[in-house]
Design a protein that fits this description.
Layout: H1 5-21, H2 32-61, H3 66-73, H4 77-88
Helix pairs in contact: 3-4
Length: about 90
């Protein structure tokens, strides 16, 4: 990491030269449609996780056991407890 003014200026010149000399190759570019699909899927998964946490919180408040919750989320009760207990307390 540049520390002195001279190092910073030299680094800036180096970066400017790299930028000016950049010649993109077809394989360097990302497919914008694929990136958009990935971003949307990650957002959907995040929203689904929030819904699941809300449901687990409600289930625990209603007195459901970790075993029952585990059955619904497709895991053992112990695994459900380990995954969600500290998030829904």
């Amino acid at each position: 990491m540049p520390r002195t003014v001279e190092e910073i200026l030299a680094h800036a010149d180096e970066m400017a030269e790299k930028f000016e000399n950049y010649d993109p190759q077809p394989g360097d570019e990302l497919d914008p449609e694929a990136v958009a699909l990935l971003r949307a899927a990650v957002a959907e998964r995040s929203e689904a996780e929030r819904h699941l946490l809300d449901a687990v919180r409600a289930a625990r408040a209603a007195g459901l056991s970790w075993s029952a919750i585990g059955t619904f989320v497709g895991t053992s009760g112990e695994a459900a407890r380990q995954r969600y207990a500290n998030k829904v307390a």
